[in-house]
User: Fold this.
Amino acid sequence: MITGLASVVDGDTIEINGTRIRLYGIDAPEGGQLCAHANGALWKCGDESTLALIRQLGRSQVRCEAKGQDRYRRTIAICFKGGVDINQWMVAGGWAMAFRRYSLAYVPAEDRAQKAKLGLWAGTFQMPWDWRAAKRRR
Assistant:
């Protein structure tokens, strides 16, 4: 169990007391990733995803239940602010996607966000994993 004040690294990564934590089962747009509003106007969706997480966490205590480590040696965890599953909150608001490659836990929340056109789902975007793969190919 890891607890403390979290600093937000990006839309799916936080840090508590020097421990970098990747939020389990979700993937958020990267910094620099652009998405399109319904009217076609581009916006920095990776930055907005990060800001959504910053606003949600504020200066609150966060509790993370570790599930393992990723290849970058980050702790992978489900994190909570009070009784709220932060990972699910990000997906339910349309600020992150269910990372099906690793978990199906947040697929129902993603389906609801998509249907309601919340966050990223209000326009068009490239899935974060596809965006990263395309950047690697360049």
